[in-house]
Write a structure and sequence with these properties.
single chain, 72% helix, mainly alpha
Length: 99
Amino acid sequence: MNKYLVDEAVLSEAADALLKENPAMSKADLMQKLDHQITKAIVGSLTEEQGAELEKILDEGATEDAIDDFFAKYNINLEEVIKNAILEFKKDFDEGGAR
């Protein structure tokens, strides 16, 4: 698993789109901030018990399939959570708040 909770390709694509609009930040910094925003949104979509379970899964070095299974088990639309987090980040970024 890479250093991000979210697929690095998703972060890279979103960062590239934001950098086209405003290249003032490095891509690595932008990806890190975006990953943080998405992780907060993912954790915020979980109950306390689900959060503890996910933390345990991640600490055990979960595969991508295990993570997908976790979200499917609780009917959490991870794609929607990520999309909304990216849109919120973009809004903040455009307003100068995500820098």
